[in-house]
């Protein structure tokens, strides 16, 4: 996702993440920054940057924060894959492109200036755009101007075009069309996450009912909202028993030669052959049947080997971004609704 930060505005390409709140970018001075293609943002070369006091509500909302020597807010974030960002909390003018062609500038957006960052980030991204439901999320900060609506369209990992994924806010983010399906968003703790309800998954004509057998540390005391949708997580994570049932059903319906993942990460893999037929999966959310083609559920991990992009987990179940590719996905936080529309995101 591309945003512009500062005055004059500097373009920043960052990862859109519905599973976290704080937006941050790598900043000078860098004590430890990963390599990025774009120039690193310099807060001293913009006229609108200001630091945030460690007594502010924004500092408290970050969660893991402290005071530096100048009584400014210092933050420390870590992610599920052990990536992290450490830096200073600031406020800056963010500029977004609109469908009318005019730029929209929003002053005073709270974000992180990361001086020490590392992990699984690639060189094209300068940081994270936090799209979660928490207080410092950019969605929450812009809630008045965007009416609680945003949508995105994730392009496939392998694509002949160099088109990047798109994100829209406000009225432009409403998902419309005859093939739209919608499911309720369910409010639970923590408020960062977008919980939805998974009822089962079908392989051909066989449906596997979802039973939450996880021992998640999160608030899953009720069956409603048993999975989160997360654009920042690659794979889809399911409770062990449900995953086992899905895997055995897939084995029965796929006529290929089973092999092991050379990386040792994924559980169900096949040798690529001309005659192999992979089934569609239908993910049954409450009120919404989402059809996933094999391009969303299997990924090539090495020459001649493809593997299922679903894995077992003892923690929270997650509908990851590989399963979201080539869908226009709309979040309506006023009406608490999540919508899916199958599209070619390279042409959207």
TrEMBL record:
<dbReference type="GO" id="GO:0005576">
    <property type="term" value="C:extracellular region"/>
</dbReference>
<dbReference type="GO" id="GO:0006508">
    <property type="term" value="P:proteolysis"/>
</dbReference>
<keyword id="KW-0064">Aspartyl protease</keyword>
<keyword id="KW-0964">Secreted</keyword>
<dbReference type="InterPro" id="IPR021109">
    <property type="entry name" value="Peptidase_aspartic_dom_sf"/>
</dbReference>
<keyword id="KW-0732">Signal</keyword>
<dbReference type="InterPro" id="IPR051708">
    <property type="entry name" value="Plant_Aspart_Prot_A1"/>
</dbReference>
<dbReference type="Pfam" id="PF14541">
    <property type="entry name" value="TAXi_C"/>
</dbReference>
<keyword id="KW-0325">Glycoprotein</keyword>
<protein>
    <submittedName>
        <fullName>DH200=94 genomic scaffold, scaffold_133</fullName>
    </submittedName>
</protein>
<dbReference type="Pfam" id="PF14543">
    <property type="entry name" value="TAXi_N"/>
</dbReference>
<keyword id="KW-0378">Hydrolase</keyword>
<comment type="similarity">
    <text>Belongs to the peptidase A1 family.</text>
</comment>
<dbReference type="InterPro" id="IPR001969">
    <property type="entry name" value="Aspartic_peptidase_AS"/>
</dbReference>
<dbReference type="InterPro" id="IPR034161">
    <property type="entry name" value="Pepsin-like_plant"/>
</dbReference>
<dbReference type="GO" id="GO:0004190">
    <property type="term" value="F:aspartic-type endopeptidase activity"/>
</dbReference>
<dbReference type="InterPro" id="IPR033121">
    <property type="entry name" value="PEPTIDASE_A1"/>
</dbReference>
<keyword id="KW-0645">Protease</keyword>
<dbReference type="InterPro" id="IPR032799">
    <property type="entry name" value="TAXi_C"/>
</dbReference>
<dbReference type="InterPro" id="IPR032861">
    <property type="entry name" value="TAXi_N"/>
</dbReference>
<feature type="domain" description="Peptidase A1">
    <location>
        <begin position="1"/>
        <end position="341"/>
    </location>
</feature>
